[in-house]
């Protein structure tokens, strides 16, 4: 009797196993598809990063890479401010995750002063500064005693004066190694040029009152001035590549690495060359 009972129980277990192996059926008598595991069914978690940028061309380049980053699980928010000078404080105060608007000499000039512990993660492009005028058609027309506008922040002021020196219009004293100079550092000014030091953003609007001004290309683009009208400009070997900057330690974040990869891709190189021509030069 015990033997028959054991055989009956075994038969029931085998039948149950066969039914389970065939899968359950839905209401139509069809086999139901196996359910995916919860881990496989969950979509990849999207990470949001906020990047502060100048409006042109930086923000435009960031907007271009948004779709690519979205595919990689990174939601990019582009933050522009009325005053680019506030983008480093915003990074310091963790209002943004990175910024993209400045070059290394500018960062170096302000980092020590403000105590920023920042790191550069990528070099993206150079905006060759140029000399613009509404009154002159060539460098040879610059008159004796001409009023020349130059940016008044240390690194860009030095950059402007070096450009004038390269054009043979002035000579700076030797030994300037910190990317900083003012008109006081000029040792030879054969044309007796008068320098008007002004906030860089005001120089495009000041052109009617000046014989000419040296203006950053992003400001030229924002002011709808044709960059091809520059009487002269820096060459492509300029050390002033615009960079991505983060707080030290954040360079290892996966989303920052994806940002850098997208900004230095062949697609971005072509976008920059097609859209900006001589005004913006890829630095990678």
TrEMBL record:
Coiled coil: none
Membrane topology annotation: Lipid-anchor
Lipid attachment residues per UniProt (S-diacylglycerol cysteine): 22
Gene Ontology cellular component list: membrane
Entry keywords, A to Z: Lipoprotein, Membrane, Palmitate, Signal
Location of this chain's protein in the cell: Membrane
SUPFAM superfamilies membership: Periplasmic binding protein-like II
Cross-referenced InterPro entries: Lipoprotein_NlpA
Primary site of residence: membrane
Family statement: Belongs to the nlpA lipoprotein family.
Annotated protein name in UniProt: Lipoprotein
Record organism: Paenibacillus rhizophilus
Record lineage: Bacteria, Bacillati, Bacillota, Bacilli, Bacillales
């Amino acid at each position: 009797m015990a033997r028959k009972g054991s055989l009956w129980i075994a038969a029931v277990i085998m039948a149950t196993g066969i039914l389970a192996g065939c899968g359950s059926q839905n209401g139509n008598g069809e086999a139901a598809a196996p359910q995916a595991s919860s881990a496989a069914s969950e979509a990849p978690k999207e990470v949001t990063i906020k990047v502060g940028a100048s409006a042109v061309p930086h923000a435009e380049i960031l907007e271009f890479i948004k779709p690519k980053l979205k595919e990689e699980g990174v939601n990019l928010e582009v933050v522009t401010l009325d005053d680019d000078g506030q983008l480093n404080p915003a990074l310091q105060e963790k209002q943004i995750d990175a910024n993209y608007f400045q070059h290394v000499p500018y960062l170096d000039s302000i980092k020590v002063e403000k105590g920023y512990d920042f790191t550069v993660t990528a070099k993206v492009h150079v905006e060759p500064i140029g000399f613009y005028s509404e009154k002159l058609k060539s460098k040879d027309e610059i008159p004796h005693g001409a009023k020349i506008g130059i940016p008044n922040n240390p690194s860009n002021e030095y950059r402007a004066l070096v450009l004038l020196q390269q054009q043979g219009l002035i000579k700076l004293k030797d030994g300037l190694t910190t990317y900083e100079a003012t008109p006081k550092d000029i040792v030879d000014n054969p044309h007796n040029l008068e320098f008007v030091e002004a906030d860089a953003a005001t120089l495009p609007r000041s052109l009617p009152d000046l014989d000419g001004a040296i203006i950053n290309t992003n400001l030229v683009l924002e002011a709808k001035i044709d960059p091809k009208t520059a009487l002269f400009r820096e060459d492509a070997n300029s050390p002033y590549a615009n960079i991505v900057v983060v707080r030290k330690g954040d360079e290892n974040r996966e989303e920052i690495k994806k940002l850098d990869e997208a900004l230095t891709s062949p697609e971005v190189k072509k976008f920059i060359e097609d859209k900006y021509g001589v005004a913006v030069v890829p630095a990678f």
